[in-house]
Amino acid sequence: MPSRRVKNRGSDPAQVRQSREMRHRRLALFIQQFEKEAQERMNELEAKLENMLATVDKVFKVELMKVPLALQKTRIGELFSEEDFSASDVSIAMKNESLEIHQTLRRTHSKIVQSTDSGSPVLKPSAKTSKVSSLSTNICQKEGANRF
Q: Keyword set for this entry (predicted)?
């Protein structure tokens, strides 16, 4: 049988002081390590921020080069002074004239139907899937006709 632990009933003041000092040193080292890791993380985040800002600047310059030269040289004050449009009118016009279709995408589950002829399940497309596929077929046919 293992021997029983014996509790130290009479704590030596020197031992208590030494254990406190050891705890204080450990806590100080822990805090130093934590601050060092936090500083490293801040440096990493600042580097990422600088990289992202540089990327945004490059993209802005590329998009600015796509704008016609006459529009590039036009001042903003001239654009606003010619015609008075409210912000809501501009946003409505942009939505109406947008070439992109703004629809939210939804996941539809196809139904699995058990075939009576064979034991393997047969996938039956849902109604939404068939509408999308027929719409995309019509668009492709129209684009093919417009190319020639």
A: Cell cycle, Cell division, Centromere, Chromosome, Coiled coil, Mitosis, Nucleus
